[in-house]
Each structure stands twice: as structure tokens, then as C-alpha cells.
Amino acid sequence: MASRAEPPQEALSLAEARWVRIMVDYCADGVWHPDGCAGHAEELPVDAGLIARIRRWQEWYDTESKDYLPPEERTGQFDLAAFAAEGLAIARAVKAALPDWTVIYFDEAACRLDAPRESFEYEIILPPP
């Protein structure tokens, strides 16, 4: 007799999983669940200032990065190095606020170097106090 498929389990919230990926994508919120689904910055149990910083970073990407356009149609200059540095600083701030969480950072600048994944997507580990 064939067994019935198990119903899909509900995805854990960020707080239940104690895991977050800090990464941008167009029209996202800058935070991602372990299953790859987009999350919402306010799901993080951090102060409002850090949530606002994540949102400003995401908005920076949405408004200034035009990578979806052919190079000849892009206007302005997106400072990818500064953008990636701010993303790393945000990921470190999230890790400092949530030291018992797994915080993954996706470095948009390093990703474009055609390097191994571990060089642009990695866990944030803070030095001991």
C-alpha cells in the first residue's frame, strides 16, 4: 500500500530558526529565511534603528543599482564597493545584536568576481569580546 505524502511543514519564522541571510534583491527587504524565501526586516528582534538601516541599504540597491538593464542603458554610477561594505557592516551589527543566531552575509561585490560561493556568501563570526 502506498503511503501518503506528508503535508508541507510551515516555514519557521526567523526568530524560531535563529538564522538569517543578509542579502539584497530587487523589491526585497534585505533579509532571507533559511529556505531561501524573502523575509521582512521587522521579523528580526533588533532595535528600530538597525531595521531602518537594513531598509535604507535595500532601498539604495533598489534605486541605484540598475544591473537588470543592459550596460549601455544604465545611468549613474552605483558604488558597489561602498554598498557591499555597508552590507557587511549591517550583517556584523545584526550578529552583535543576536550573538546566538546564525547570520549569513551575501556580498554582492564579491559575487560578481566569479569566485567560489564561500567567498561571497559566508557566516558572520565576531571575535571574542
Offer a few descriptive terms:
129 residues, alpha+beta, 4-stranded mixed sheet, 4 strands, 33% helix
Specify Rg, calculated over alpha carbons: 17 Å
The share of residues in helices is 25-40%
Mean pLDDT: 87
Order of helices and strands: HEEHHEHE
Strand content: 5-15%
Structure description:
The chain has a domain at 47-69 and 80-129. α2 runs antiparallel to α3 (80-97). The mean pLDDT is 87. Strands 2-1-3-4 form a four-stranded mixed sheet. It has helices at 14-17, 48-64, 80-97, 108-111; strands spanning 19-22, 31-32, 102-106, 121-123. The protein has 129 residues and is of the alpha+beta class. It is globular.
Give the SSE map:
Blueprint: H1 14-17, E1 19-22, E2 31-32, H2 48-64, H3 80-97, E3 102-106, H4 108-111, E4 121-123
Parallel strand pairs: 1-3
Antiparallel strand pairs: 1-2, 3-4
Helix pairs in contact: 2-3
